Amino acid sequence: MDSQFITLAAGCSEFRHSLHRKPELSGTEFSTxxxxxxxxxxxxxxxxxxSNHQGIVALWPGKDPSAxxxxxxxxMDALPLREESGLAWASQTPGVMxxxxxxxxxxxxxxxxxxxxxxxxxxxxxxxLVFQPSExxxxxxxxxIADGILENPKVEAMFGLHGWPELPAGTVAxxxxxxxxxVDNFTxxxxxxxxxxxxxxxxxDPIAAAAALILAAQTLVSRKTSPLDPVVVTFxxxxxxxxxxxxxxxxxxxxxxxxxxxxxxxxxxxxxxTLIRNTSAAHGVTPELGWLDACPPTMNDPNMxxxxxxxxxxxxxSQNLRTSNPSMGGEDFAFFLEKxxxxxxxxxxxxxxxxLHNPRFDFNDETLAAGxxxxxxxxxxxxxxx
Length: 386
Ligand SMILES: [Zn+2]
Ligand SMILES: [Zn+2]
Description:
By secondary structure, this protein is an alpha/beta fold.
């Protein structure tokens, strides 16, 4: 790898540690925004901010101001988790932690800003650096799109990365099509008729209905969906009742459905609703279903995936390219990729610091240089092809 990226990364790791000490939950990334703005201004950028979220857009103009630009994105938020890493730069905010490595993503994008500013060169296309809040809650990207960040200058292609512990440190994997799953979260309340636990025939038991529904829902995966289409139906929460001898009035279930293919998604959701209606009717309870936090699958553009893969191969050597299956996790970068072609890829971190969302997780500083180098290569390759 080019030594300039290793030098850049050394400075960026200190910045990452400062972000790691002060993690902020989705929607409250105020001091994170302040720290990024100070760094970007010092580099000569004029960062744009917004009134309804903590996102930042910093444009490095291209040679032709009327031409489009390429956008690179880093997410900013942390998680509600008590850090147990024992590191010198561990979170100083109890119960909040950068356990998904978004501090590393921001440090990499700041590294790209430093690289652009130090070289001082204008490219054929502009480069838009997008720092996005509220990824973990899935609503940061839609807010930034609504604010028009994909226009003026028009974003023609967009790229994002995520640190990935399952891949060896410093490697990169770029899926050709689906990278992350579509997410449909739901809350379902089954309303029955409460009564004495010893006289169930006088009641309409929502717990028995819920039990039947949870088991039947697994057949949506095993009997209704092709074995070649990956889907997940998970009930993550169930709550009902206060006492052993009282049949409650209601039972509330919460869960998540994950899919990749839009057609599979719509038929699965329709089948799920039919199953709820019919199971509820059989048990004499009334269902109230609410869909929340929907996020489409993160779909890479095959040409942009090739571009990102070439950039990674040039920057890191082809021996550091990996293939990887898509993840059933969700990612609101999907909303950007619905609007513009682009690619989302994984930067291998190695497993030394545990899996994502773990209380002992930490971003691997040794991979920051690779992240900066691949983004820089994407800019160069995109400007060549545009
Ligand atoms: Zn996460
Ligand atoms: Zn994440």
